[in-house]
Structure formats: structure tokens, C-alpha cells
Design a protein that fits this description.
Number of helices: 2
Order of helices and strands: EEHHE
Shape: globular
Structural class: alpha+beta
Strand order of the largest sheet: 1-2-3
Distance between the termini: 29 Å
Helix content: 10-25%
Radius of gyration: 11 Å
Length: 74
């Protein structure tokens, strides 16, 4: 898998989309919600570590657009 390959992480309610090629490494995600966004863990996004609303709010603060989310359909 390429280091710059887009990745998706889901908790069954929402899916976080990560585009590493767009990331400017501002660390807004890590500083704001370290339980979910932990660069030392693999996978680095743990969708079980917070509720969907908290994750949505943090992802919306990504300055580069490298992180986005979509609602999962049931």
C-alpha cells in the first residue's frame, strides 16, 4: 500500500476519509482529539475512541482538507 494512498476509517455511523497527500501536518486533529488521532498507533485513526459527533467536529477543523467525513448508510 502506498504511503500516499487515500484511506477510510468507519465506526458504522460515519466514515473518516484521509488523503495523506493533502496533509500539511498542522496536527490540529492530534492536538484536538488524541484518543482518535494518534500518529504512533496503527491504524492511526481509532474510530471507537470517541462518539461520532465529537469526531465530526474535530474532522471539520482540518485546515488542509486532508480529513473529511461522510455519513454511513444503514
Amino acid at each position: 500500500m502506498s504511503e500516499n494512498q487515500d484511506r477510510d476509517y468507519s465506526n458504522g455511523e460515519i466514515t473518516v476519509h484521509w488523503k495523506p497527500g493533502k496533509c500539511i501536518h498542522s496536527a490540529v486533529c492530534v492536538k484536538g482529539l488524541h484518543a482518535v488521532f494518534n500518529t504512533k498507533a496503527r491504524p492511526w485513526i481509532n474510530m471507537q475512541a470517541a462518539d461520532s459527533g465529537t469526531i465530526r467536529k474535530q474532522v471539520s477543523q482540518c485546515p488542509s482538507g486532508a480529513l473529511s467525513f461522510s455519513e454511513d448508510t444503514k
